[in-house]
Design brief:
Seminal Fluid Protein  PDC-109 (Domain B); 8-stranded mixed sheet; 4-stranded mixed sheet; 1 helix; about 5% helix
């Protein structure tokens, strides 16, 4: 396993403790939040303790993953996980959840970041739940994950510049993605419109065309340079389909 090279952004604010003797107006951090003392009383800073403390902000820590490789049970020390690896792809098979249960991944590395689903190299309760086996986060992409206690898994709740399209899972071939008039994304079969038969040296009969291209759509072209002909399917709703051909003539050079 690759070394988990990390660094945490330095926090220059004083951290609250039971032994602290705060002064009025002093700033401290506690549980990822920044507070200002209103009374000088050293009670624990909480949202309900409005007499002694004022919440003034949230501390966001950053963790750097500087080396590629496989990461099992990746120990999380911050809310922002930035990948800067230049040596190899980073592959994450699971995250710890004890310190943070909502994290944002930022890919500033030279490779896609790969997340593997239900990978047995990580502890069962630290794995990632995905509709398919893996997802790739593109370079300069981001992905936000939350830990769902009821199922003991991490799940993706948002992403940017991701190559992952789980809504179209189940495809067994490449297809194109289109957006319909109701802004609904769907996939469509890739339709071949033109083929070249460079070695075709004899004319094609209607039976030949029907046998070779029975399912092609109207407008489909078969170009045969050796015999100077292009066959075009004109009607796909007849039996047999209607084809016609055109002969080639070279475009004359301009003068």
């Amino acid at each position: 396993m690759a070394s988990q090279t990390t660094s945490i952004a330095e926090n220059k604010k004083k951290i609250w403790s039971a032994d602290l003797r705060p002064k009025v107006g002093q700033s401290v951090t506690h549980l990822g939040r920044q507070w200002v003392s209103l009374s000088g009383v050293n009670s624990e800073p909480t949202l309900s303790n409005t007499n002694d403390w004022l919440l003034i902000g949230k501390i966001i820590n950053e963790q750097i993953i500087a080396s590629g490789g496989n990461y099992n049970n990746l120990e999380i020390n911050a809310e922002i996980i930035q990948f800067t690896n230049t040596n190899a792809q980073a592959i994450v098979n699971g995250f710890s959840f004890e310190a943070y249960k909502r994290i944002t991944l930022i890919n500033n590395s030279d490779f896609d970041v790969r997340l593997n689903a239900e990978d047995t190299n990580s502890d069962e309760n630290k794995r990632i739940k995905l509709p398919t086996g893996l997802t790739n986060m593109g370079i300069q992409g981001t992905t936000e994950l939350v830990y769902v206690d009821s199922i003991e898994r991490w799940q993706i709740v948002d992403s940017f510049a991701s190559k992952y399209r789980p809504e179209h899972r189940g495809l067994d071939e490449f297809q194109v993605e289109v957006v319909g008039p109701n802004a609904i994304s769907e996939t469509r079969e890739i339709i071949e419109l033109i083929v070249f038969r460079d070695a075709q040296s004899t004319d094609l009969t209607l039976a030949d065309l029907e046998s070779l291209y029975p399912d092609q759509r109207r407008g489909f072209h078969v170009i045969c340079p050796l015999i100077n002909k292009t066959y075009i399917k004109e009607n796909e709703n007849t039996n047999p389909n209607t084809w016609h051909y055109i002969t080639h003539n070279n475009v004359p050079s301009g003068t």
